[in-house]
Specification:
The chain is α/β, with parallel strands linked by helices. It has a six-stranded mixed β-sheet with strand order 1-2-3-4-5-6, with no helix packed on it. Strands 7-8-9-10-11-12 form a six-stranded mixed β-sheet, with helices on one face. Strand 1 and strand 2 form a beta hairpin. Helix 2 packs across helix 3 and helix 4 packs antiparallel against helix 5.
Length: 228
């Protein structure tokens, strides 16, 4: 299954599958424009700004009125506020397969600090999974998929070291929240080991880049740090 990562991480998220399915839209319209003409479906996970940029969503909708925006119930209002017509929105209930424009799509709930979901996509004879912004994959089992696009935000040792350094320096640390809301590499690899088949491929997403304690603290004070 073909995929291209437009961006992943706290600065924005967007992945294109088989040239025609965009998962998450937390990036600029300029970065999406090269893929726009071939897109048929946009799958949305949650409302954090690094996964949902309203201005880009609106520009896509205006430029491609036939584009379908698929989401669970919690994203309907943000889409409407962004200016997307209800006729372009497909409401998806988690736990059920849906056929849309030749693809099969399936949403599954993920634990985060806002309502969130991951996606299974069956297209052109292959199946991909997308999961980010969750501290656990416990209770979820997706065996022998062709492609796993999954968060591996930090190593547990790195997170503990950053938290300790900030605590010693008297700087606010978001690492405790990150441990709850984002998958570590250790947890991701353990889950993949239980689910991947012989020919499966995986790609890590949403890997954390520490921009320095003061900047992280300042973003957190403003309530805009998407890593929380």
């Amino acid at each position: 299954m073909r995929y291209e990562i437009i961006s992943t991480g706290s600065n924005g998220n967007g992945v294109v599958i088989n040239d025609r399915i965009l998962i998450d839209c937390g990036v600029s319209f300029k970065s999406v424009r090269p893929y726009m003409k071939k897109l048929d479906i946009v799958l949305l996970t949650h409302q954090h700004s690094d996964h949902f940029r309203a201005s880009t969503v609106y520009a896509l909708h205006r430029s491609r009125p036939t584009l379908r925006f698929c989401c669970c119930s919690w994203m309907v209002e943000p889409l409407s506020i962004a200016g997307v017509s209800p006729r372009a929105i497909d409401l998806i209930e988690a736990g059920q397969w849906y056929r849309l424009l030749g693809a099969m799509i399936y949403a599954f709930p993920l634990a985060h600090n806002v309502p969130n979901c991951g996606w299974l996509v069956y297209d052109n004879g292959q199946t991909a999974m997308y999961a980010t912004d969750t501290g656990t994959m416990d209770g979820l089992s997706f065996k022998d998929l062709d492609l796993y696009l999954i968060e591996a935000n930090h190593t547990e040792a790195e997170l503990e070291a950053r938290a300790a350094a900030k605590l010693e320096a008297g700087i606010y640390s978001y690492e405790a929240a990150a441990a709850v809301n984002h998958l570590s590499q250790e947890r991701t690899l353990a889950w993949l080991a239980e689910n991947m088949g012989q020919h499966s491929v995986y790609q890590f997403l949403h890997q954390h880049i520490d921009h320095g304690g003061n900047q992280d603290a300042e973003q957190n004070d403003k309530g805009v740090d998407p890593n929380i």
